[in-house]
Design brief:
Layout lengths: L3 H6 L8 E7 L4 H13 L5 E8 L6 H13 L6 E5 L4 H9 L7 E6 L7 H12 L4 E5 L6 E2 L4 H17 L12 E4 H6 L9 H11 L4 E5 L1 E2 L16 H11 L19
Parallel strand pairs: 1-2, 1-4, 2-3, 5-8, 6-9
Antiparallel strand pairs: 4-7, 5-7
The protein binds guanosine-5'-diphosphate and magnesium ion.
């Protein structure tokens, strides 16, 4: 039996506020600009909170100090909080925040300005129109793009996007950009498996397999001006393993165990 109707039926009927999840390891002025631009481009009532996700050991002292300063400068509109990840790596940072988020929706973005904060206001506007949808940013749509990406990387990215889109029968043009808005209930329903960068693919292809609607908006990627990426070129091959696993998984295996019905849990 298909799980599709049950998942879609459990998605929210309204947008009431976004928890913006900003993972950071070695960003200082880029993290500050990210938070300041979020406040500039979003209405305070649309942001439930900004959660800065730090690694307890690997986040640099400068990055932690910037995060602490942003928390103490915040006037509570929206609240800015630091969350130390309980699971490792980039995917683990976002996954650790899922149980904590207070918003009806969560935005996954970076602290290195490769995910332009300007687009978050546009994501929220789309989410108000379609609260049950995932709103995803695309660098391959008109109005979006890559600046400062080598030609070889752009060609590899284009080929990869087309292969995965064909596997999942989707017209979405950017399945790996770590820049999306999700209904929080959806994030809580899925049994996420990836801890590293393939989490950024898993978060597009699992909702696709579950029949969740998507809205795509353009966004411009530009390379970070500070710190280094935590990803390596060879690690990109791990994305194929994720794609095959999710493509051929039973839909029900992509979901967490549903809570036991009342009266069955006590024995
Ligand atoms: N808290 C936390 N953040 C991470 C970790 N790995 C990467 N990030 C952050 O996640 C975002 C995306 O990672 P990045 O290394 O830039 O990957 P790339 O953009 O794919 O090259 C950046 O803001 C990183 O600082 C991690 O292990 N923990
Ligand atoms: Mg980056």
């Amino acid at each position: 039996m298909s799980d599709r109707p049950s998942v879609v039926a459990r998605l929210p009927g309204a947008f009431t506020g976004a928890s913006v999840l900003v993972a950071a390891v070695n960003e200082t002025f880029s993290l500050r600009e990210t938070v300041e631009e979020l406040r500039r481009f979003c209405r305070p009532e649309d942001l439930a909170e900004i959660l800065i996700l730090l690694h307890p050991d690997r986040t640099t002292p400068g990055c932690r100090e910037t995060a602490e300063a942003l928390v103490s400068e915040s006037d509570g509109r929206p609240p800015v909080r630091i969350l130390y990840q309980a699971l490792p790596f980039a995917g683990g940072a976002y996954r650790s925040a899922i149980p904590e988020a207070k918003g009806s929706h969560c935005v996954m973005m970076s602290a290195d300005l490769e995910t332009p904060p300007e687009a978050v206001g546009r994501m929220i506007a789309e989410s108000k129109r379609a609260p049950g949808a995932v709103v995803t940013a695309s660098r391959w749509m008109a109005g979006g793009g890559f600046s400062g990406y080598s030609r070889v990387k752009i060609v590899c990215n284009a080929i990869f996007q087309k292969l995965i889109a064909a596997m999942f029968l989707t017209r979405l043009s950017d399945l790996t950009y770590a820049f999306r808005l999700f209904p929080t209930d959806l994030l809580r329903m899925v049994d996420w498996r990836e801890l590293r960068h393939p989490f950024f693919l898993e978060t597009s292809i699992v909702p696709l397999r579950l029949g969740v609607p998507f809205v795509q908006i353009p966004a411009n990627w530009r390379p970070r001006a500070e710190g280094e990426s935590q990803n390596t070129f060879l690690a990109n091959f791990r994305y194929f393993r994720t794609a095959f696993r999710v493509r051929f998984a039973r839909r029900s295996s992509l979901l967490r165990e549903p809570p036991a019905p009342p009266g069955k849990a006590a024995d």
